[in-house]
Design goal:
InterPro entries: AurF/CmlI, Ferritin-like_SF, RNR-like. This protein is mainly α. It is built from 14 helices and no strands. The protein binds fe (ii) ion (2 copies).
């Protein structure tokens, strides 16, 4: 289930913004986790479990999947889950830097300022948690392709306003829809379910903030600015979604990488799962005026629309 809500089109006022940030701060005080304590890091990996819900595997539903042994299927979903976590770390580093830049020298007495630092602290814990989780799944470092790393470097240095916050929202929503399924799934290894549960709880506050900021920053922006940023956000979304599962997961799961990559590319089941899971997110982007003709081309290519 997607958690984005379209909400009202009216731009939030300063006092709305303060209220939201204050509520988020209270909520974070009431319910936050320390993964070092909460996650079972001690128990050795039990390979009778999946790393993710099999239905979310990039090969689920293909003829290759049907030929795989249950052991291979589980190894594949474990490598895929580790890859998603690694991509999560990459994007969390981008978003921490964007938020730090955004709040540089702003008024520290404002709730939004304090919330931003709280969110950055959450992300810092998350990235350490994902790193430990991927290592426990016996996965190597899955980093994005060279070009994507360099594009990310430019984006995190230059992006501001609605482009930064809508990109944050997309990355968080896409991760969220998967993790909501995995955290409830008894076929998934328990420590991964705990990681997903922690992430889903803490990210729901981040997504609320990202939606508010996107609407605030868009208010009163010119048509041209909206058109440009809609396109930038769509390209970033395309890059994030297509970087989620690294090609090397197939070889690491003992599969033929060429056949696996080919069948994953044509996997209609996976495409329609992504589309249906992200319908709430697309509704939000539409209500914010960010689904322009050119941006929709990228969302369709990323199987988000
Ligand atoms: Fe996070
Ligand atoms: Fe987040």
């Amino acid at each position: 289930m997607a958690s984005a809500t379209a909400g009202s089109d009216a731009a939030p006022t300063q006092s709305d913004r303060d209220d939201v940030a204050r509520r988020l701060l209270h909520s974070s005080e009431a319910l936050s986790y320390d993964p070092a304590q909460e996650v079972d890091w001690e128990t050795p990996l039990d390979t009778s479990y999946h790393g993710a819900s099999p239905e979310w595997s990039t090969l689920y539903g293909t003829s290759y999947w049907a030929e795989m042994t249950p052991e291979q299927q589980r190894e594949l979903t474990r490598q895929e889950a580790a890859s998603v976590a690694s991509t999560g770390i990459w994007f969390e580093m981008i978003l921490q830097q964007m938020m730090l830049r955004d709040f540089y020298a702003k008024d520290p007495t404002e709730p939004a300022f304090q919330w931003a630092l709280t969110e950055i602290a959450d992300e810092c814990r998350h990235s350490i948690m994902f790193a430990r989780g991927a290592a426990k799944l016996r996965a190597p470092a899955y980093r994005p392709r060279r070009l994507v790393i360099e594009l990310g470097r430019v984006f995190k240095t230059l992006a501001f306003g609605e482009a930064a916050y809508a990109a944050i929202l997309v990355a968080e929503e896409v991760l969220d829809v998967m993790q909501r399924d995995w955290m409830r799934d008894e076929r998934v290894v328990p420590f991964v379910r705990t990681i997903n549960n922690i992430h889903v709880v803490e990210e729901s506050r981040h997504m609320k903030f990202a939606r508010e900021e996107t609407r605030t920053r868009l208010a009163g922006s010119s048509r041209l600015r909206r058109q440009i940023n809609a396109l930038v956000i769509a390209i970033v979304s395309y890059v994030i979604v297509t970087s989620m599962v690294h090609k090397k997961v197939y070889a690491n799961a003992g599969l033929d990488p060429e056949r696996a990559t080919r069948e994953a590319k044509g996997n209609e089941h996976h495409k329609s799962l992504l589309r249906s899971s992200c319908s709430g997110l697309m509704e939000f982007l539409g209500s914010a005026g960010l689904l322009t003709k050119t941006s929709m081309w990228f969302y369709k290519r990323a199987n988000l629309l």
